[in-house]
From TrEMBL:
It is found in: Endoplasmic reticulum membrane. This is NADPH--cytochrome P450 reductase. It is an enzyme of class 1 (oxidoreductase). It holds the Pfam family NAD_binding_1. Residues 282-524 form the FAD-binding FR-type domain. It comes from the Eukaryota. It comes from Rhopalosiphum padi. Binds 1 FAD per monomer. Binds 1 FMN per monomer. The lineage of its organism: Eukaryota, Metazoa, Ecdysozoa, Arthropoda, Hexapoda. It is a single-pass membrane protein.
Length: 681
């Protein structure tokens, strides 16, 4: 631009004066100088951007990389592989299982590759038949109310809407679900059936993992039979070679400049210092804690009301959405690992994938210190799975410790029993294992490779954006419990949140990374539609937002329908949360009825389910005669199931239907979004 303007100026001057003046010379020098600096500065920036070391985004690929890496078929062919394992994962478990299967493929002369369907052109499945003895395995989780995970959504829709000819494709499916939820493994079951409908050949029957029981046991049992079927189908035999081969290699990064080292960012380096909208799972917003107050009036338990400040973030949420909170592990546990392994936690390192074709170059943001990895990126508080037991065997110097690990890593009945009792029942995490098997001293970089990623925690938002557009409220119970080995386990997120207490305005406020996850848990479009809300304990959270929104509409002069709330807790004078707010909503007419159950305020325990049974007429009047909506929030394992049974019973009796008709009626309510659940196990 400077050059263009300079030429015009010079041309004008020459026309007016035939001789070169001092002004001409001065202008020319300025133009040349500006052009020189502009050109070489741009070139320098371009070069420096190409030479930036360790600028990684492990959770995403650039648009160029996505285009070049989208053909998994080309990768399989160019690297001599015949096995591809796709994963649909929301918390990382399905991805972990996929990695274990791909790794074991080597034992059966099937070189494997793990693939994220979101980064692949899944239409290439039609070309799998071109690869001799090829196999596609799908480890697929079902999420929410029978939904595909975010990264499997496009693949799911492609299967639904497409009619590709998949004849010649050999496949197997393992589903990850939870039996406490109604739509148990729905997505995996659909994918398994749909692939067969499109002409693919099922090599092994679908496996259904239940996270409410022992999903590790389900997976291991299915995987063993899978390889038997694979051997039979392809006429191959197991080589017997162990597959304890490192997926990542250690890189010493002690010379890397401090500004190039990750310090807890999820994806983009220095993203917390330089925040950029939009905010999501890969780019969370560093929110200030505006309010953190105790809701319980007495007793030894704690329930926190927390408000995240989102003013200026451009973030928007709807009533009923969830907020994801990124926690960090306690420094006490992190330091303990360093002490047990005699490791320098402040050493800077990187783990680089030994598979050059993999789009996932690092297991977590690298380079970083071991302290950062153990604090922000790795799950050190959950129960380790059996493959970690297997990998730890080589690091045990005591034969007794070796034998114990071998037993727990095995798939024998005795091994499964020992793993269930010593790991699951006694609730041991990796720190406890290293404490109780003192001769086990794994290399810290290998341990970092083995441990799963630390996941964000989701909370139902307990506010309405109509009333609180600049803040997000949550209601969270502090999690602390004693294990059978007399250790105190602490909830990672809630114990961190309990420490984040706002200070005086002059001082920096505590912060935590968050993002908003959309939900289908929504108020009816019309404010006149009557609703029933059932939410004991912290299940009240989303209904606080519902009530706020209806109250806002009432104050605007709009007509609002009946709002009936069922709430329960242990004792009225102890854990009746938001009592004053609820009583005020009853007084002003927003909340039509408030049914309360205090389970321990009388000799016989009373729960919200008892009140529902007593109020069958009211229940049918709203959901049957007035076509109202019904919402349930809370424990999926017992409360939500009991509520469902009561609803079916009420519909059957008051609607004069058979059991089959009542079940169909309730099913139709769910399909019409008139019966919604926001539950957890």
């Amino acid at each position: 631009m400077e050059n263009s303007e300079g030429v015009k100026i010079e041309s004008t001057v020459v026309t007016e004066e035939p001789l070169i003046s001092a002004l001409d010379i001065a202008l020319f020098v300025v133009i040349i100088t500006v052009a020189y600096f502009w050109y070489f500065k741009r070139d320098k920036q371009s070069s420096s951007s190409e030479k930036k070391p360790y600028t990684i985004q492990p959770s995403s690929l650039s648009s160029i990389e996505q285009t070049s890496n989208s053909s998994f078929i080309k990768k399989l062919k160019s690297t001599g592989r015949s096995l591809v394992v796709f994963y649909g994962s929301q918390t990382g478990t399905a991805e972990e299982f996929a990695g274990r299967i791909a790794k074991e493929g080597a034992r059966y002369k099937m070189k494997g590759m793990v693939a994220d369907p979101e980064e692949c052109d899944m239409a290439d499945l039609v070309e799998m038949k071109e690869i001799q003895k090829s196999l596609a395995i799908f480890c697929i989780a079902t999420y929410g109310e029978g939904d595909p995970t975010d990264n499997a959504m496009d693949f799911y829709e492609w299967l639904q809407n497409g009619d590709a000819d998949l004849e010649g494709l050999n496949y197997a499916v393992f589903g990850l679900g939870n039996k406490t939820y109604e739509h148990y493994n729905e997505i995996a079951i659909y994918i398994d059936q749909r692939l067969e409908e499109l002409g693919a050949t099922r090599v092994h029957e679908i496996g259904l993992g239940d996270d409410d029981a022992n999903i590790e046991d389900d997976f291991v049992s299915w995987k063993e039979k899978l390889w038997e079927s694979v051997c039979s189908h392809y006429g191959i035999e197991e080589t017997g070679e162990e597959s304890n081969i490192r997926q990542y290699k250690l890189v010493d990064c002690s010379e890397v400049l401090p500004e190039r080292i990750f310090s807890g960012e999820i994806s983009r380096l220095k993203s917390y210092e330089n925040q950029r909208f939009p905010f999501d799972v890969k780019n969370p917003y560093l929110s200030k804690i505006a309010v953190n107050r105790e809701l319980h009036k007495s007793g030894d338990r704690s329930c926190m009301h927390i408000e995240f400040d989102i003013d200026g973030s451009k973030m928007r949420y709807d009533t009923g959405d969830h907020v994801a909170v990124y926690p960090k592990n306690s420094s006490e546990l992190v330091d303990k690992i360093g002490e047990l392994l005699n490791a320098d936690l402040d050493a800077v390192f990187s783990l680089l994938n030994t598979d050059e074709e993999s789009s996932k170059k690092h297991p977590f943001p690298c380079p970083c210190t071991y302290r950062t990895a153990l604090t922000y990126y790795l799950d050190i508080t959950s129960n380790p799975r059996t493959h970690i037991m297997k990998e730890l065997i080589e690091y045990a110097s005591d034969p007794k410790d070796q034998e114990k690990l071998k037993l727990m890593a095995s798939s024998t009945p005795e091994g499964k029993k020992e793993f269930h009792e010593w790991i699951l029942r006694d609730n041991r995490n990796i720190v406890h294992i290293l404490e109780d098997l003192p001769s086990v001293k794994p290399d810290l970089d290998h341990l970092c490779e083995l441990l799963p990623r630390l996941q964000c925690r989701y909370y139902s938002i307990s506010s309405s954006p109509k009333v609180y557009p600049k803040s997000i409220h949550i209601t969270a119970v502090l999690v602390n419990y004693t294990t059978p080995t007399n250790r105190v386990n602490k909830g990672v997120a809630t114990n961190l949140l309990a420490q984040l207490i706002p200070t005086d305005d002059e001082l920096p406020q505590p912060t935590i990374p968050i993002y908003i996850r959309r939900s289908q848990f929504r108020l009816p479009p019309k404010s006149q539609t009557p609703i029933i809300m059932i939410g004991p304990g912290t299940g009240l959270a989303p209904f606080r937002g519902f009530i706020q929104e209806r109250d806002y509409a009432r104050k605007e002069g709009r007509e609002i329908g009946e709002m009936v709330l069922y709430f329960g807790c242990r004792k009225k004078d102890e854990d009746f949360i938001y009592e004053n707010e609820l009583q005020e909503y009853v007084a002003n007419g927003t909340l039509t009825k408030l049914h309360l159950a205090f389970s321990r305020d009388q000799p016989e325990k009373k729960y919200v389910t008892h009140l529902l049974e007593q109020n069958a007429d009211e229940l049918w009047n709203i959901i049957g005669e007035k076509s109202g909506h019904l919402y349930v929030c809370g424990d999926a394992r017992s409360m939500a199931k009991d509520v469902h049974s009561i609803i079916v019973k009420v519909v059957m009796e008051k609607g004069q239907m058979t059991n089959s008709q009542a079940l169909n009626y309730v099913k139709k309510m769910e399909q019409q979004k008139r019966y919604s659940a926001d539950v957890w196990s």
